[in-house]
């Protein structure tokens, strides 16, 4: 890990990095992002903002890989800020990030944004003001069950701002685009105000074989550390199986196992496969960020 720190420190010496400039550390799951962020924070007097869509939830510790002991006293933010089952969307994250970033600046410190949720990262690195548009009560539910062609037909009925980029990859994201356009139609006076901070983006890209080995090793460690017991406790507290499965990956397959819909061997092998696939999807999204104009310094 120390070998990864040296090129970052060298990069910081070469570039102007005022405290207002956010240092971003991204990479696929199990690539060592948190350890590296902590080492860097110790060197430059920084605080860390997490960009992980599941680590916001309290008591979902082992399955989300919080590893809070790794922070070694470095202040961290946007971890353990919601109860399991509470709604938290991209707009919430953007608002929370900007508020936290400003509070760190007032302390005279650098900000490190660290995580693997590409959409969260890109939404603060690049200006995405439309993500701050609030949800319309009952609107998404009114479009539930619509087919992709039906949603696309509805989408085509709106006048789309030139700077609003629509993600057509899933029905869920098409529905959100329709909701945003409906809001703009109802609120023509709305003017986007979000200002993206300057950012230095550092990416971790371990060799595929190393990545796969790290993922498998970490999964075994999480199971031994009591992950299934953590899920059982969440169920005891009132978190439903539907909610667990919504969080995906570890929690989805743990739920299926505890419901006795899969045996232990199937639970473990399917989960391991899905985490490998997830890491691949993360890397695909990071490459998309580069195509969208974000410079990533890979190490």
UniProtKB/TrEMBL annotation:
One Pfam family recorded for the sequence: IPPT
Cofactor(s) in the UniProt record: Mg(2+)
GO annotation (BP), single: tRNA modification
Ranges for region Interaction with substrate tRNA: 52-55
Quaternary structure (record): Monomer.
Function: Catalyzes the transfer of a dimethylallyl group onto the adenine at position 37 in tRNAs that read codons beginning with uridine, leading to the formation of N6-(dimethylallyl)adenosine (i(6)A).
Name by which UniProt lists this protein: tRNA dimethylallyltransferase
């Amino acid at each position: 890990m120390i070998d990864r720190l040296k090129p970052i420190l060298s990069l910081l010496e070469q570039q102007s990095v005022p405290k207002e400039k956010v240092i971003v550390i991204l990479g696929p799951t199990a690539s060592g992002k948190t350890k590296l962020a902590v080492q860097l924070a110790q060197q430059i007097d920084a605080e860390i903002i997490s960009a992980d869509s599941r680590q916001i939830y309290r008591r979902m510790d082992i399955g989300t890989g919080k590893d809070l002991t790794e922070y070694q006293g470095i202040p961290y933010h946007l971890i353990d800020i919601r109860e399991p089952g509470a709604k938290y969307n991209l707009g919430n994250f953007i608002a929370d990030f900007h508020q936290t970033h400003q509070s760190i600046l007032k302390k005279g410190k650098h900000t490190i944004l660290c995580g693997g949720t590409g959409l969260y990262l890109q939404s603060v690195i690049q200006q995405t003001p439309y993500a701050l548009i609030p949800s319309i009560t009952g609107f998404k539910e009114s479009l539930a069950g619509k087919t992709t062609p039906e949603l696309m037909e509805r989408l085509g009925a709106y006048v789309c701002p030139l700077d609003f980029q629509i993600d057509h990859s899933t029905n869920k994201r098409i529905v959100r685009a329709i909701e945003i356009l409906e809001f703009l139609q109802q609120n023509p006076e709305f003017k986007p105000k979000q200002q993206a901070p300057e950012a230095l983006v550092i990416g971790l890209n371990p060799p595929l074989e190393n990545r796969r080995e790290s993922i498998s090793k970490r999964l075994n460690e999480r199971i031994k550390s009591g992950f299934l017991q953590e899920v059982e406790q969440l169920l005891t507290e009132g978190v439903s199986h539907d909610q667990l499965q919504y969080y995906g990956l570890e929690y989805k397959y743990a739920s299926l196992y505890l419901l006795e819909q899969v045996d232990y061997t199937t639970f473990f092998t399917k989960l391991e496969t899905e985490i490998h696939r997830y890491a691949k999807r993360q890397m695909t999204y990071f490459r998309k960020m580069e195509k969208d104009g974000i410079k990533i310094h890979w190490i």
